[in-house]
Amino acid sequence: MIEVELEDLEWASSLPTAAAVVERAAMAALGAVEGDVVVLLTDDTTIRDLNARFRDRDRPTNVLSFPAAESAMPHLGDLVLAHGVCVEEAQAQGKSLSDHLSHLVVHGVLHLLGRDHEIDEEAEEMEQEERSILASLGIADPYETNDHPLGEA
């Protein structure tokens, strides 16, 4: 189950289908894995606070992933996405907000499933998995024109 919480109404203003976009991308990333994911669509201030408290990085970011403890299963974890950062990145990269949000959700869910990108080999594997999942959704390769890493997920 995917639960989407819309905390910042700017998401609804700029992307009325935001909840549906999140659900579709999260389900694609989960594939056959069963589990619950909560996705909070929030603002830059909230994500900056979370990033500072949990990652010691006092700045807003696009997406944060919080994997659940194994004892919490079937809850896999939580994702938090910042509206302002996501909109700015989508515009800067010449992408639709829907496609960029889909990419960030896929990226975040993969983190909840244990994928990472700390070393080059892991990053290449994770990016390939993202490309494949996004292609199944009809979304172009997000890394084709994007030199920038995805943030703090």
Keywords, separated by commas or semicolons:
48% helix; alpha/beta; 153 residues; single chain; Collagenase (Catalytic Domain); four-stranded mixed β-sheet; 16% strand
Structure description:
The protein is an alpha/beta fold and 153 residues long. It has a single domain (2-136), classed as Collagenase (Catalytic Domain). It contains six helices and four strands; from the N terminus they run E-H-H-E-H-E-E-H-H-H. A hairpin with a 7-residue loop joins strand 3 (63-67) and strand 4 (75-82). Helix 2 runs parallel beside helix 5 (97-112), helix 4 packs across helix 5 and helix 5 (97-112) packs across helix 6 (120-136). The radius of gyration is 14 Å and the shape is globular.
CATH class: Alpha Beta
Would you tell me which CATH topology applies? Collagenase (Catalytic Domain)
Indicate the mean pLDDT: 91
The string of secondary-structure elements, in order, is: EHHEHEEHHH
- Any idea what the CATH architecture is? 3-Layer(aba) Sandwich
Discrete helix count = 6
